[in-house]
Amino acid sequence: MFTGIVEEVGEVVDVRADDEVVVLTVRADLAAEVGHGESVAVNGCCLTAVVTGSGADTLTLELVPETLKRTSLGAVGAGSGVNLERAVPAGGRLDGHIVQGHVDGVGTVVSRTPGERSDEVRFSLPAELARYVVEKGSVAVDGVSLTVATVYPDGFGVALIPTTLAETTLGSRTPGDPVNLEVDVIAKYVERMTAGYLQGPGSGQEGAAR
User: Fold this and answer.
1) How many CA atoms lie within 13 A of 5 on its CB side?
2) Architecture of the domain made up of 105-189
3) What stretch(es) of the chain map to CATH 2.40.30.20?
4) To the nearest whole percent, how much of the chain has pLDDT over 70?
5) How many CB atoms lie within 10 A of CB 198?
6) Are strands 39-42 and 119-124 parallel, antiparallel or unpaired?
7) Hey, what CATH topology would domain 8-86 get?
8) Looking at the predicted structure, is the pLDDT value of residue 176 above 90?
9) Helix/strand/coil for 137
10) How far, in Å, CA of 53 to CA of 33, rounded?
11) pTM for this structure?
12) What pLDDT does residue 54 have?
């Protein structure tokens, strides 16, 4: 589990295909603290670190076809910056919100309006995710925990504080860029558990909701 608080922007130094798997190598300071088999969120996508060692300055991660299909990571190349976050330790601070690293869909940057120190950015999102995004709710964009400022029929807007602009890749995203989206997992569970009740008696599903 993650919190959406980015620890570091790493640099992709190599991308290679190994049959249907894409192997991603990322240079980052936190690589030295990540062991083989540990989870790392890369642009909001939970990936497993492989071939790591003491003192290593790179992370090696494998992208399977399912990951390539459902996220924007297939578009990264050498030189790309990626947001990185290690899994939150049990008993650690939950400074952002509950983020699983399970990308729900890919949206795009629609527009950004720079301010003196902050930016307002609008994102599109797949229609099937719209019901989970509410004003003042939480959403993870490329692994960054953000508060929804405005809801639109086809997307949402956020206000990016100076720290987010300076310390994540969202500071350099431009209109048309793809972004990984993860909506609030609590909203998805509530919907699932109440579906039978909302459909009413006789639907044949009310028992499954209990």
Assistant:
1) 10
2) Beta Barrel (2.40)
3) 8-86, 105-189
4) 92
5) 11
6) unpaired
7) Elongation Factor Tu (Ef-tu); domain 3 (2.40.30)
8) yes
9) coil
10) 9
11) 0.89
12) 59
